[in-house]
Amino acid sequence: TLAPTVTLEDSGELAVAADYIGVPHPPGYPIWTLLAWLFQWVFHWKTYYGQPNPAWSVGLMSAFFGALACGALALLVCRSGADMLRSMKRVTEVLGYATENVICWVGGVTAGLLLGFSPALWSQSVIVEVYSLNAFFLVLLLLLAYMWICRPADNRILYATAFVFGLGLTNHQTLLFVALALLAAIWFRDR
Predict the structure, then answer these.
(1) pTM, entire model
(2) Which of 22, 23, 49, 63 has its CA 20 to 30 A from that of 35?
(3) Which pLDDT tens digit goes with each residue over 92-109?
(4) Any residues with CB less than 8 A from the CB of 83 and at least 6 apart, and which?
(5) 3-state secondary structure 122-178
(6) If DSSP codes are grouped into helix, strand and coil, which group holds residue 97?
């Protein structure tokens, strides 16, 4: 269902900014623009009625990062579910590890598919827009924060989380809403 070319909203403006490494409307989306330019450079051969079509390549980038967000969410749900089930010894004794692994795998795949087929992510992943990359940064932040909570002595994960947070802010400032949750998670885990 990927849009074949430019659609409504900011699609035309963002596609042109990606093609020329320009600056779209404020806040400018620098990381999105660089990644979109890279995608349109790699897929420059795609045409629409014989004309160059950078919008298709940038739309493909939206779909790619939407799919990565779904995969990262599936990984997060699967891993955290396994950790929660293993923390309950009685459940582990009753179910056994094989059944436990199946439950975690099904939970992770279900979470990823629910996010992928949600109208909000699907609609933004098939057009030229910045929100699927933002969804990827959000889920990646949650995944990295969970990894650090499991291993608080490994500061490299915490540094990677901070780097991804800063990088994500160059895409869309709505990640600021996650800052308080990240700070609370860090404070509760390691005062």
Answers:
(1) 0.85
(2) 49
(3) 666 666 777 788 889 899
(4) 150
(5) HHHHCCCCCHHHHHHHHHHHHHHHHHHHHCCCCHHHHHHHHHHHHHHHCCCHHHHHH
(6) helix
User: How far is it, in rounded angstroms, from Cα 82 to Cα 107?
Assistant: 10
How much is the CA Rg of the chain, to the nearest whole Å?
19
Residue 13: other Cβ atoms inside 10 A: 14
CB proximity list for 91: less than 8 A, separation 6 or greater: 85, 100
Closest C-alpha to 33, from 52, 61, 5 = 61
Name which of 30-39, 91-100, 143-152 the model is least confident about. Answer: 91-100
Distance in angstroms (rounded) separating the CA atoms of residues 167 and 146? 18
**What average pLDDT does the structure give for the chain?**
84
Q: Is pLDDT at 48 greater than 70 in this prediction?
A: no
Q: Which residue from 132, 127, 128 is spatially nearest to 71, judged by alpha carbons? A: 132
At residue 191, the pLDDT reads: 74
* pLDDT tens for each residue of 26-35: 777 888 888 8
**Is the separation of the CB atoms in 121 and 133 below 8 Å?**
no
76 within 8 A of 146, measured Cβ to Cβ: yes
> For 34-57, b where at least 16 C-beta lie within 10 A, e where not — what string?
ebbbebbeeeeebeeeeeebbbbb
